[in-house]
Amino acid sequence: MAPITFTPLYMDRVWGGRELERVYGRTLPDATTPIGEAWEIVDRDPEQSVVNSGPFAGKSLHELWSHHRGEIFGEGLPDSERFPILIKILDSRDDLSIQVHPPVDKADELGGEPKTEMWVIAAADPGARLYVGLKNGVARSDFEAAIADGTVEKAVHAIAPQPGESIFIPSGRLHAIGAGLLIHEIQQNSDTTYRVFDWNRMGLDGKPRALHVEQSLASIDFEDFEPGMDVPNGDVLAECPYFRTSRHELADGALLANPDPGRFTIVGVVEGALVSTDNRRFVKGDYLLQPKGASPLVAECETVALQVEMPG
């Protein structure tokens, strides 16, 4: 089968901007709203990726996963009600809240969903920072005191990432994306976020955004000190029970195929362009689903692509 493409969903965020328009040539919902997230691949209620061309045009990702799983995705995949992976592109023109996602063993108790994710840095302004984990020596009591006096950022470890680098964010890791970053995010299908600190700012409605201090304190890994950006294992950037993400640097004319012909992958173009056998061209910022048995994509020039698989 040919690649399957979906219409992105755009989310306004107080920390967002217009980089999706400037860098990727996207047509955003209006001319001024700060857009922080493009949901490229999603199967949630009510957020749904909808196929925008080809024989499945008009069908949602949920319909494909529910009624065409073997045909499109392959066999031996999780017996989940919804497609288990969610992929976004994030545009942070301001700092995101310092936050955490509940770990598996605490999510039900807290009324949320676990969320392990990873970030691939597509662009970084000079001085841009990620906030990940705690500074060495910060104990839970120190962190609680920082919450009380509004200085949480002083307790959190900061990293200066470079384009092309990546970092794995397991559930329970304290984190925030700083201003000036364009990021590809691959994650479990979850939308549970506990904000512990929001830089003492107002939301788009002029009111402080809700914080979730009790849930955050129950979720944070207080033994997670000063992690660094990840070192790839060959092409593999991250591998966990929920997804495997690889980064491929392709010469002009090189092929990018599904590693297992009997299983699907999701492909994102970071730089350059890929062409399918039905002569469709996919450029920087595009995501597509390569069904099982799909013919390889061909690099039209020097190209960098992400390929996401589902373990199992």
Layout of secondary structure:
Blueprint: E1 9-17, H1 19-24, E2 35-41, H2 61-67, H3 69-73, E3 85-92, E4 98-100, H4 104-110, E5 117-124, E6 130-134, H5 140-149, E7 156-159, E8 166-169, E9 175-177, E10 181-188, E11 194-197, H6 213-219, E12 236-239, E13 244-250, E14 255-256, E15 265-271, E16 273-275, E17 281-283, E18 287-290, E19 297-299, E20 303-309
Antiparallel strand pairs: 1-2, 2-3, 3-10, 4-11, 5-8, 5-10, 6-7, 6-9, 12-13, 13-20, 14-19, 15-18, 15-20, 16-17, 16-19
The total beta strand count reads 20
CATH level 3 topology of the largest domain = Jelly Rolls
**N-to-C span:** 22 Å
Structural class label:
alpha+beta
Find the CATH superfamily of the largest domain: Jelly Rolls
How much is the average pLDDT? 96
Largest sheet: 6 strands, antiparallel
Reading the helices and strands in chain order gives: EHEHHEEHEEHEEEEEHEEEEEEEEE
Helix content: 10-25%
Put simply, the count of helices is: 6
What fraction strand? 25-35%
Tell me which CATH architecture of the largest domain applies here.
Sandwich
Could you characterize what this model shows?
This protein has helices at 19-24, 61-67, 69-73, 104-110, 140-149, 213-219, and strands at 9-17, 35-41, 85-92, 98-100, 117-124, 130-134, 156-159, 166-169, 175-177, 181-188, 194-197, 236-239, 244-250, 255-256, 265-271, 273-275, 281-283, 287-290, 297-299, 303-309. It is built from six helices and 20 strands. It folds into two domains: 9-219, Jelly Rolls (Sandwich), CATH 2.60.120.10; 236-309, Jelly Rolls (Sandwich), CATH 2.60.120.
